[in-house]
C-alpha cells in the first residue's frame, strides 16, 4: 500500500470560531472525527492533530509567520489516489462546519535506497 499525507486547511477566522465552541459542541465535533476514523479503519496510519499557525524558515535561519492556512494533518494508506480520496468521503472537516474548509491529499513518494 502507498502512504498519503492528508492536510486540512481553513482560514484563521474559523480556528478562532472553534475556540468559542461549548464543551458540548467540541464533544460533537470530536465524535464526528472518531466516527470517520472508525470508518477508515486500518487505512488510517496516524490520526494526526490540529496545528497552530506555523513559522516559515528561510535561508540564513530567519523566520516569519506563515501565511498558509494549514490547520492539521492525518496519514492514510491506500492502494492509489482514488482509494485515498474515497476514504475522505463524509469527512467532518469538509462536512459543512466552514464553507472555506478544504482537504488536500498527497501521495508520499518512496525515497530511492531507503
Task: Note down, in words, how this protein is organized.
The chain is α+β, with helices and mostly antiparallel strands. The protein is 29% helix and 33% strand. The protein has three helices and six strands; from the N terminus they run βααββββαβ. The chain has helices at residues 12-19, 23-40, 81-87; strands at 2-9, 44-50, 55-58, 62-65, 70-78, 102-107. The protein has a four-stranded antiparallel β-sheet with strand order 2-5-1-6. The relative contact order is 0.31.
The count of β-strands is: 6
Largest sheet: 4 strands, antiparallel
> Oligomer, anyone?
single chain
Which whole number gives the mean pLDDT? 92
Distance between the termini: 16 Å
By helix and strand content, what is the structural category? alpha+beta
Supply Rg: 16 Å
The largest sheet has its strands arranged as: 2-5-1-6
Low-confidence stretches: none
Q: Determine the strand fraction and express it as a percent band.
A: 25-35%
- Give helix and strand order, one letter per element, not per position: EHHEEEEHE
- Count of DSSP-assigned helices: 3
Residues in helix, %? 25-40%
Shape: flat
Amino acid at each position: 500500500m502507498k502512504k498519503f499525507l492528508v492536510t486540512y486547511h481553513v482560514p484563521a477566522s474559523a480556528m478562532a470560531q472553534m475556540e468559542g465552541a461549548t464543551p458540548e459542541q467540541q464533544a460533537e465535533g470530536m465524535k464526528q472525527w472518531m466516527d470517520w476514523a472508525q470508518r477508515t479503519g486500518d487505512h488510517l496510519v496516524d490520526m494526526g492533530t490540529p496545528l497552530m499557525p506555523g513559522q516559515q524558515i528561510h535561508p540564513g535561519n530567519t523566520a516569519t509567520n506563515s501565511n498558509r492556512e494549514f490547520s492539521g494533518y492525518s496519514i492514510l494508506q491506500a492502494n492509489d489516489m482514488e482509494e485515498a480520496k474515497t476514504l475522505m468521503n463524509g469527512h467532518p472537516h469538509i462536512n459543512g462546519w466552514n464553507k472555506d474548509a478544504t482537504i488536500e491529499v498527497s501521495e508520499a513518494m518512496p525515497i530511492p535506497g531507503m
